[in-house]
Amino acid sequence: MRYTRQRGNTMELFKDYIRTEDNKEAVIESENFINSRCGLYLYGKTGCGKSHLANEVFRYVRNQAQLSRQAAFITMTELLSKMKSNLDYVDDIIDDHTYELTHLFLDDIGSEKITEFTLEKMFIIIDRWTKKRNPKIFITSNLNPSELEEKTSDRIVSRIYEICKIVQIKGNTDYRILKNKELK
Question: Which of 38, 65, 155, 184 has its CA 20 to 30 A from that of 165?
Fold first, then answer.
């Protein structure tokens, strides 16, 4: 079952997103993220549309003239990889990707290989966002907060709870597989 919701210009924002009862709350909270002071932690099964939804919001935010250079979309694995390959400049990379930005979109947190290095850097990134006056962070994950805590640490998840609304996309539909079947 599809539904539509229109609020100002944000209807254009999700024009290519398949809306269902399973993702209704996630779409509404993604709309709210744009004008809210609260971050968003969106989790659900693989292929349910988390990254697609985050990318739609990112593109909308980037198109706002005053925010065009202040928003970044990056997977957690890619961010940690960039930090690891530039060990002499880890703090500069963290600052470039988090502290000076007004909007950070971290995709697929919890999918990275967990090491002491990744735990330390994940904590630093999330912790710095909790210290910002208006932490606009949009995080996606296949893991619910309890699963993320088991994989990482209670310190990281506690800070996510501090700055984010937690929303699950329900259902088991993998839209990539569904779309592929429709193409054949």
Answer: 65
